[in-house]
Amino acid sequence: METYLDAILERHRNLASNDDRDARELFDEALSIPRNGSFLEALSSPGLSVIAEVKRKSPSKGDLNLFLDPEVLAQAYETGGASAISVLTDSDAFGGSREDLETVERSCSLPILRKDFVVDIRDIYDAKIMGADAALLIVAALDDDQLSELFEAAISVDLEVLVEVHDEAELQRALDLGSMIVGVNQRDLRTFSVDTKRAERVLGSIPDEILAVAESGIATPEDAKDLALKGFDAILVGESFVTSPDPAKVVSTFDGFPVGPRNMATSI
């Protein structure tokens, strides 16, 4: 039975197979563009950091804020105290676009994560060309050779990487790459169901020197505080912010909680 992830990846692989642009030319262009800021440094300040997401819709929730203004939203996020911004560029499933990311890049000074289903080296170069400071690599979507190739491609054009995992086996693959930023997604990308205990379970195996990000299922300031106390350095939140009439105010209520020691987390 085809899963949500299978369908999304098939579409992205088809797009990649029909992309006849020269990868070397894209590499040269990406390398020539200076990075605006460091995603890692922005998330390393004391207290819980917030990665605020620009997301119009999702497969699980449908339309969230289909006609949002990326410029206005990015500025609200910065005003509210977000440390970084994540921008969905997947069009079919999430309603995003490269134009959304380019608009955000022009509108604020925060480092930007391109959040998409990266399957091809040109996706990496495109992220840098669009104005991203970091790209997302999803371990569940890639085999070891693909993961390594794409990770190294990002490093080669001075693009940081958030490597996303769902369990300890995927975490080990991320650590084997040399990842410095690991995101634990509490949403199963095959079913789109959320397990709010997943982040805590996986966190117990993340070394202290690795920056840990919790993703999905974070709906309230209490959720944010709980994840911070367990030892997460940052959270990535979309729905609660894009659906709010005052995103700056809401972001401020999720930000800055004291980060506790990770040995309090429960390992699998």
UniProtKB/TrEMBL annotation:
Keyword Lyase recorded: yes
Catalyzed reaction equations: 1-(2-carboxyphenylamino)-1-deoxy-D-ribulose 5-phosphate + H(+) = (1S,2R)-1-C-(indol-3-yl)glycerol 3-phosphate + CO2 + H2O
A Pfam cross-reference name: IGPS
EC number(s) recorded for this UniProt protein: 4.1.1.48
A GO BP entry: L-tryptophan biosynthetic process
Ranges of residues in domain Indole-3-glycerol phosphate synthase: 16-252
InterPro entries: Aldolase_TIM, Indole-3-glycerol_P_synth, Indole-3-glycerol_P_synth_dom, Indole-3-GlycerolPSynthase_CS, RibuloseP-bd_barrel
Entry keyword set: Amino-acid biosynthesis, Aromatic amino acid biosynthesis, Decarboxylase, Lyase, Tryptophan biosynthesis
Pathway involvement of the protein, from the record: Amino-acid biosynthesis; L-tryptophan biosynthesis; L-tryptophan from chorismate: step 4/5
Molecular function terms from GO: indole-3-glycerol-phosphate synthase activity; phosphoribosylanthranilate isomerase activity
SUPFAM superfamilies linked to this entry: Ribulose-phoshate binding barrel
NCBIfam families per the UniProt record, alphabetical: PRK00278.2-4
HAMAP family recorded: IGPS_B
Name assigned to this protein: indole-3-glycerol-phosphate synthase
The organism's taxonomic lineage, starting at the top: unclassified sequences, metagenomes, ecological metagenomes
